[in-house]
Specification:
elongated; 18 strands; single chain; alpha+beta; 374 residues
């Protein structure tokens, strides 16, 4: 409350001093300026002095706060024939007096590298005792639209609805979008519906004639940016051919799997068969028969052939020879590891006694251990 009363008193004093002084601000330009961020602006404040103004000259530029509870921020100051441009840290290095000697009647300032936070109401106050004059100007720093992004949404096929979108991520509202075709007839399709605020173009029931290059322009009061898009409307796909191709591919895949499984099973069966053959060969087999049996059969056969060729007169002579009285032992039919048993003893009979008893003498040739006839 006290701050409001104090400001009101200052205004009254300024009015009273203005009536009593000859200081006049002569600037008559616009009091509202719109600029894009990054640009520069001149805030004009020209004045005239009168001979009655005899005090020191003071020039003050301040940024008026929107909140009455907060103080105004001094941006730049001229006092004692010297400029002070480092009062406001937010604008340090970006604000300067337009004239090297403002006391000549030019209190204008230049702001460079504008930012969106620089927006606000600026006041130029010229004081030369006993008079005070001031002028206010509204500065609006707008952000230029950033380069938009153009793209197509939905299937780009004939007979489908295609949506062309354009979007700029930065920029002070209100933003406006416009579309045009840069190829062919350079006219949007007759079925196209444009949304200048949303930045879309809806092409309904698109045809091949809608193909071509399109341009979108995003703009506001301080600038514009654009992007391009090439739209290619294709015929609908051959669904039957795709299905047939998919079926053939699946069948080929199954056939390949079946061949692989068959080869694996066959290889496994062959490996199993070879393993069984190897096991059968490794099994113990009975040793071959001894040569004794062969020799014995040969001996017996030889004895028979010999007996058949002998006459009764020779039988007695062969019976008396001891080498023919030996019978081959059974040790030749036994395995080599077994101990041979002694041959059974038999009562020998002489040839005449054998004849009297009705027997037929048999000549048995003698054999050595390896089965050969002695």
């Amino acid at each position: 409350m006290e701050l409001t009363i104090g400001r009101f008193c200052c205004v009254l004093l300024s009015l009273f001093a203005g009536l009593a002084s000859g200081v006049e601000i002569t600037s008559s330009g616009p009091t509202s300026i719109e600029k894009a961020s990054g640009q520069s602006v001149k805030l004009d404040c020209q004045f005239n002095l009168d001979s009655v103004d005899s005090g020191p000259l003071d020039i003050e530029w301040s940024l008026i706060s929107n909140d009455n509870q907060k103080e105004d921020k001094v941006v730049i100051l001229y006092a004692g024939d010297r400029s002070y441009d480092d009062y406001f840290a937010q604008m340090k290095g970006r604000v300067h007096f337009n004239s090297a000697d403002p006391k000549n009647g030019d209190a204008s300032i230049n702001l460079t590298g504008l930012k969106s936070v620089d927006s606000g109401t600026y006041q130029c106050k010229v004081k030369k005792a006993p008079g005070i004059r001031s002028r206010r100007m509204l500065l609006i720093v707008m952000v230029k639209p950033s380069k938009p992004r153009c793209y197509a949404e939905g299937p780009t096929q004939e007979g489908k609805d295609i949506v062309l979108r354009c979007k700029s991520n930065e920029g002070t509202n209100p933003l406006q979008y416009s579309w045009d075709k840069t190829s062919g007839g350079k006219l949007l399709p007759s079925s196209a519906v444009l949304d200048s605020v949303g930045g879309t173009v809806n092409v309904r029931n698109a045809s091949a004639g809608a193909s071509g290059s399109y341009r979108c322009i995003a703009s506001n009061r301080v600038g514009s940016e654009e992007c391009t898009l090439y739209l290619n409307v294709t015929p609908p796909p051959n669904t039957a051919g795709i299905i047939a191709g998919a079926i053939i591919a699946v069948l080929l895949f199954l056939i390949i799997i079946a061949i692989i499984l068959f080869c694996c099973c066959r290889a496994r069966h062959r490996k199993k068969y070879e393993k069984e053959i190897c096991n059968e060969i490794r099994e113990d087999v009975p040793p071959p028969k001894s040569r004794a049996s062969t020799a014995r059969s040969f001996t017996v056969g030889s004895q028979r052939s010999s007996l058949g060729s002998m006459s009764p007169s020779n039988l007695h002579e062969y019976a008396l020879k001891p080498q023919y009285d030996k019978i081959p032992s059974d040790e030749y039919e036994r395995p080599p590891s077994s101990v041979p048993l002694p041959p059974p003893t038999a009562t020998r009979m002489a040839g005449p006694n054998l004849s009297r008893m009705g027997g037929i003498p048999v000549m048995i040739p003698a054999q050595n251990r390896d089965g050969s006839i002695v």
